[in-house]
Amino acid sequence: MGGQQGEGVESTDRIFSTALNRLGYYLYGYRHFSSRIKGGHTNNKIRISVKPIRSISDDLDILVAFDQETIDLNAHELRKNGVVVADAKFNPTMPEGVQGRLFPVPITAIAEELGTSLFKNMVASGASWALLGLPLEVFNKAVEEEFGRKGPAVVEKNVEAVRRGAEFVLELAGGPLSEFQLEPADGKQKLFMIGNDAIGLGAVAAGCRFMPAYPITPASEIMEYLIKVLPKFGGTVIQTEDEIAACTMAIGANYGGVRALTASAGPGLSLMMEAIGLAGMTETPVVIVDTQRGGPSTGLPTKIEQSDVLAMIHGTHGEIPKIVFAPSTIEDCFYDAIEAFNLAEKFQCPVILLTDLQLSLGKQSSELLDYNQIVIERGNLVTEAPALEENQMFKRYAFTADGVSPRVLPGTKNGLHHVTGVEHGEDGRPSESPVNRQKMMDKRMEKMKHIKVRNPILADAKHDSPDLLIINMGSTSGTIDEARSRLEQEGIKTNRVTVRQLHPFPAEELKPHIEKAKQVVVVEYNATAQLAQLIKLNVGHADKIRSVLKYNGNPFLPSEITKECKELTLVWQH
C-alpha cells in the first residue's frame, strides 16, 4: 500500500496486519518512508504465509495505490497477473510493459459519501482484504479495536467503509481472486512486533528501570515503548537535551545500581563515544542500543545500513573492554536485551546491542516468548564490604585473575572509594605510575578473554563441505535462506553462519566453518565490507572470501543474493 506520507498508510497497514495476525498467519513487514513528517512517497509491504518468513519478497501480488506515483514506482514489482487497486480519483494508468490488472475503485468518493476522505484507507483495505477471500468480521474486529476509543459512531463508519470497498472491488473482479486465496492458517497465537518493541520489552524483563534518551530515527520507538511501560514498574524515561547527556545519565544510574540503557543511531553514537570511554575506564556497566541507518552525517535516516560496526568496536579513543553483539530476529532482540544487562554487570563494561533499521522497524511475526529463560545476573556485586583501616578505601579496582573487580553501590558500608576518568590505582585514587598503568590496563583488557555471548554464531550447516558458505549479521538471515533454497535447486551446496558476537570476535567458533567451505561470501549493508574485514583480520583465509554489498538504502531481495552468489560461484569455477 503506497501514497503520500501523512495519508494514513501506516495505520491502515497496522489494522490489516493485526487482522491477519489474529487468524494465525505468519507476517513480515517492510516500511519505506521519507525522513520528514508529511509528504513524500511512502509504502508499507506485508508478506503473508502459513509458514515462518523472515524476508521481504521479490515481487507483489496486490498493490494498493493512493496516487499515480505509487504505481509508477512499484508496479514493476508486480507478478504476472498481479493486481493494482487504485483510487479512481486520479485516473490511474499502468506503466508500459507492466503485466497487471488495474481495478480503479472510487476510494475517495466512497469515503466522502460516508462523511470524510479520512475513511479512504478503510475503503482500500476492504478492497484488498476481499480479493484475498478473507472473512470481513475478523477485519472489522481489528477496526473496532483501532477506533473504539473514538466512539461507536466512528467505528460504524469505518466498518461501513470496509464493506463498501470490498463490495465494489468484488463486483469489478467478479469475486475473490482464486490465485490469491490463502491456505487456512494454524490459528495459533503469535506475537507481531518490531525489533525496537522487543528490545524495550526485554529491557523491562531484565530489570531496567531508567532510560535517558534523545529521539532519533530508527531508535525512537524503544523510548516511546518504555515511556508507556516503565512507569508501571516504578521506572522512568527522560528525554535529554542530547545524546551526550543521555549516555552519561545512563552511566550515572548504573553506577548507582539502577539498570539503565540508552538507544540511538549512528549520529548519536558518535556523540556518545567519550562517555563510552568513561564507562570503560571507570568499569561502570552500561547498555547502549545502536539502530544502524544510512550514514555518514545525517545520511539516510529512514534507510537501512550496517556501517557502524567498526566504529562501535574501535570508536573510543584509548583502549577499553567492550562487548558488541547483533541480534538477527525479533526473538533475539528480546533475549539479547536481557543478556546485554547481565553481560554489562558481569564484566563491568559497556555493551552495545547493534541492530539495523529493518530489524528495528520491520514488523514481524514471532513465536511466544519463553519468560522462563529470564535470568538476572548482577556479577561481582558486593553487599557487605570488609572493615577498612584508617585512611584506607575500598579496592574497587582490585587486581584479579579474570580482570573483574568487586563492585559496590554508593552507600554500602565500608565501600568508600574514588571514581575518576583518569588512570587510577586499586582504590580509585589517581595514579600516573607506569607500573600501575600497565597493570591496570592489563587487568581491564583481561576481561576480553572471558567474554562469550549466548550463541556467538548461529550456523545452518547441513553440508560437510559446502560449495559456498554465506556469512552475515543482523536482519539478512531470512533473505539469505530464501536465496540458498534457490541455489540448492541449481546444485550449489550452501551453508550459512550468522555472526552475532562482533567484539570480541568469535574466531574459534567461525574458523572451522570457513575451513570446510570451498568458497565464502559475506553479505552486508555497507560499502567497505566491514564484517568481511573482521573475519579476515581474526580468522584469515582472505583468498577464499568475497563480499556481496548493498548500500543504496534498500533491503536485499532474495533474487539479488541468488544472482550475486551464482555469479561469484561461476567466477571461482573458472
Tell me what you see in this structure:
The chain has 574 residues and is α/β, with parallel strands linked by helices. It has 18 helices and 20 strands. The chain has a five-stranded mixed beta sheet, sandwiched between helices. Strands 15-17-16-19-20 form a five-stranded mixed beta sheet, with helices on both faces. Helix 5 runs antiparallel to helix 6, helix 7 packs across helix 8 and helix 15 crosses helix 18. The longest helix has 22 residues. The protein is globular. The mean pLDDT is 95.
Cα distance, first to last residue?
44 Å
Helix and strand composition category: alpha/beta
Unreliable runs: none
Report the helical percentage.
25-40%
Instruction: Record the strand order, biggest sheet.
Output: 10-11-13-12-18
Shape: globular
**Strand percent estimate:** 15-25%
What gyration radius follows from the Cα positions, in whole Å?
26 Å
Number of strands: 20
Characterize the biggest β-sheet: 5 strands, mixed
Mean pLDDT equals: 95
Helical stretch count?
A: 18
Domain Pyruvate flavodoxin/ferredoxin oxidoreductase pyrimidine binding: 202-441
Protein name: 2-oxoglutarate ferredoxin oxidoreductase subunit alpha
Domain Pyruvate:ferredoxin oxidoreductase core: 467-560
Pfam families: PFOR_II, POR, POR_N
